[in-house]
Amino acid sequence: MANRHNADLFISCHYNAGGGEGLETFHWSGSRRGKRAAELIHNQVLRSGIYRRNRGVKTANFFVLRETKMPAFLVEYGFMDDPGLEEAAQMVDHQVQKAFAVATAKGICEYFGVQYVPEEPAKPKPMYRVTVDGKEIFDTAYEEKIVVVVQQAVREKRGEIVIKKL
Question: How far apart are CA 109 and CA 116, in angstroms?
């Protein structure tokens, strides 16, 4: 699929198995650009704030590395069966996933020579309380739900509709 769409870079993200521990990143031996991408991403993941033993950047004869027309790398963020199962537990931790995703994105930006722009923290949506004829219907942060309730109240020819921002 990457070849059909003429992708600029192929990224394959995994967790390893086999009883080891640590981070390792692979590239096809015949690709200097794949090696460079692998090294940049590998180094960013090591600096992500999530400790991983450095198993290094290596070459491999994996199909996804060998058969892609573009530079490619495969990163193993840790082991799902590491001896203490610490990496395994982190595998499903959203903060760890986010840290690795950000580190990978930083490495990709570095590879392409563009500045990484961090996402802005999500701003909480304001809550609204909907009251119809003096009876509290519900609280919501989703304005489209308020529209539905107001439309229903109007169809039913109800009296006073109050929407209060909390």
Answer: 6
